[in-house]
């Protein structure tokens, strides 16, 4: 059934259909009995799927990556699609429009997406208001970033503002310095500024009565030397884990013709499967499994997810695979985990 729905959706502009889908899900789940039906179709509950990580208990190890529910409009409803946890954001202190449209592109032949959204979001205050209406018991993560107009030398201030505002509403934080769509943002992945940023957030966290886990989301385009720096940074700052990986700027081996005409942006989906798994494996092996890793990138099947777990991931996240394969993918992954 989802294949037919997808064919129809793919006839329209991807960004417009994204928000139309939100309205459709909310409307559908408001129909009496529909939540129970979706739960029967998509949700697999089993104690063996539960994971304890960062002091948190995850219902199952398959989560929704940041970027899908940027403004926290749908996290309560997404519980009925089978996810074990949801990550909202990326959020910035001030609302921003992001990059000019058109900025979201499907590469159907490659089962991929290119986006250059540019941290478009409604801002911190709007996200907090949505999180105040939290009904789901699922773990909720907050993915935080900086505003485009904030210079890198002042970036720490933006991340601190996000941390303070979201602290009582989310269960963990993700520091996003790896999006390719905000000018110069990836420069914050360099060892010195990244260490300073994470130490600041750790000190702020330590001042709270309850500490929230802090994770770092990294790009798949880092060299082995840079990945070694990431391992050192985790050891130095004592953050709680890594999310590997964000989207890639690499365009090699794509089937889609004239992809250069799309222009800049981060590539996600199947072309990222191998590289993101390589990054997970490298970090896991070369750190001697000293910190948890959430694997994300190119998960379009249960086999893709199992490869991430085999490489050393403790949890996985979906985005593009969720769009191409539908909510049944979550259940398939959890079924495969029970059989493995």
UniProtKB/TrEMBL annotation:
Protein name as catalogued: Dihydroorotate dehydrogenase (quinone)
Active site, renumbered: 179 (nucleophile)
Protein keywords: Cell membrane, Flavoprotein, FMN, Membrane, Oxidoreductase, Pyrimidine biosynthesis
Name of the gene: pyrD
NCBIfam families: PRK05286.1-2, PRK05286.2-5, pyrD_sub2
GO MF term (any one): dihydroorotate dehydrogenase (quinone) activity
SUPFAM superfamilies documented for this protein: FMN-linked oxidoreductases (SSF51395)
Subunit-structure text: Monomer.
GO BP term (any one): 'de novo' pyrimidine nucleobase biosynthetic process
């Amino acid at each position: 059934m989802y294949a037919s729905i997808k064919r129809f959706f793919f006839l329209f502009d991807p960004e417009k259909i994204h928000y139309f889908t939100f309205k459709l899900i909310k409307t559908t789940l408001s129909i009496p009995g529909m939540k129970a039906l979706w739960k029967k179709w998509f949700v697999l509950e089993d104690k063996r799927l539960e994971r304890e990580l960062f002091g948190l208990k995850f219902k199952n190890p398959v989560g929704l990556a940041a970027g899908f529910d940027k403004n926290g409009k749908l996290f309560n409803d997404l519980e009925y699609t089978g996810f074990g946890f949801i990550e909202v954001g990326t959020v910035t202190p001030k609302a921003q429009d992001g990059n000019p449209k058109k900025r979201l592109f499907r590469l159907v032949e490659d089962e991929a997406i290119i986006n250059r959204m540019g941290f478009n979001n409604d801002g911190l205050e709007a996200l907090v208001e949505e999180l105040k209406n939290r009904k789901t018991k699922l773990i909720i993560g907050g993915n935080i970033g900086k505003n485009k107009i904030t210079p890198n030398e002042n970036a720490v201030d933006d991340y601190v503002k996000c941390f303070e505002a979201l602290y009582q509403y989310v269960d963990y934080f993700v520091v996003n310095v790896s999006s390719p769509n905000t000018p110069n943002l990836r420069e914050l992945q360099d060892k010195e500024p990244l260490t300073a940023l994470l130490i600041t957030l750790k000190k702020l966290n330590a001042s709270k009565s309850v500490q929230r886990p802090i994770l770092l989301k990294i790009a798949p385009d880092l060299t082995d030397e840079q990945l070694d720096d990431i391992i050192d940074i985790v050891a130095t700052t004592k953050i709680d884990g890594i999310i590997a990986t964000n989207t890639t700027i690499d365009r090699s081996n794509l089937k889609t013709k004239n992809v250069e005409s799309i222009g800049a942006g981060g590539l996600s989906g199947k072309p990222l499967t191998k590289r993101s798994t390589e990054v997970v494996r490298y970090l896991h092996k070369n750190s001697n499994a000293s910190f948890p890793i959430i694997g994300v990138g190119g998960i379009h099947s249960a086999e893709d997810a199992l490869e991430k777990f085999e490489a050393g991931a403790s949890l996985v996240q979906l985005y593009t695979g969720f769009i191409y394969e539908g909510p049944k993918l979550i259940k398939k992954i959890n079924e495969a985990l029970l059989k493995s």
